[in-house]
Amino acid sequence: MVTLRWVSKRWSIPRRVIIIFLLRLCLGGLFIYASLAKIQDATRFKEIIVNYEVLPYWLINMTAVILPWIEFWTGIFILAGIFVRACIIMQSGLLVLFILVTGLNIARGLEFYCGCFAEDSILTSTSHWHIIFNTFWLLMVITLYLLERRRFSHRYFGTKLLA
Q: Which residues, in sequence order, are bridge partners of residue 82?
């Protein structure tokens, strides 16, 4: 009995760690999935950025090339547990930017494909649902930021559980 209790205490995973893992999985997966279609077809993504009518012409090409890779690598780093808080800050900045730009285009009455995911996905045109959807993800990012306290998330499993 004593050994079973000792083993169960030693191998028990706190709920906080499980919540952090699930949030990292969702947010990392979302940003990787969102970046893949943009990386595969950068010229189409450039046209989408032009439709937003917010960037000067000289920034459009650079944004079409760099933004999907930022999304991809922040997603990869969050999934891997490397520099999680820094990537969370980058994700929150991108989500706030997406919310503001979508709101601006809704206010101007522009209706077009948003470029968030593949064109055959559920959210294909700019609408109020995009703001709600991105706000939901932003709340998840904020929750993960408040729960995650370490620079490298995988250290928990290496020191506490397996030691």
A: 152
In sequence order, what DSSP letters do the residues of 43-65 get, joined into one string?
HHHHHHHHHH--S-HHHHHHHHH
Q: How far is CA 151 from CA 13, 66, 83, in A?
A: 19, 24, 5
Instruction: Give 94's pLDDT tier (boundaries 50, 70, 90).
Output: very high
Average pLDDT over every residue of 14-19: 84
Going from N- to C-terminal start, the domains of the chain cover 15-161
Q: Distance (Å, rounded) from C-alpha 50 to C-alpha 19?
A: 38
Q: Residues 38-84: pLDDT tens digits?
A: 999 889 889 888 888 888 989 999 999 999 999 999 999 999 988 88
12 by DSSP, 3-state: which?
coil
Question: Which range is most confident: 46-55, 103-112, 124-133?
Answer: 46-55
- List, in order, residues 6 or more apart from 126 with CB less than 8 Å away: 102, 105, 106, 110, 111, 112, 113, 114
3-class SS at 139?
Answer: helix
C-beta separation of 151 from 81 below 8 A: no
**What is d(CA 45, CA 47) in angstroms, rounded to the nearest whole number?**
5
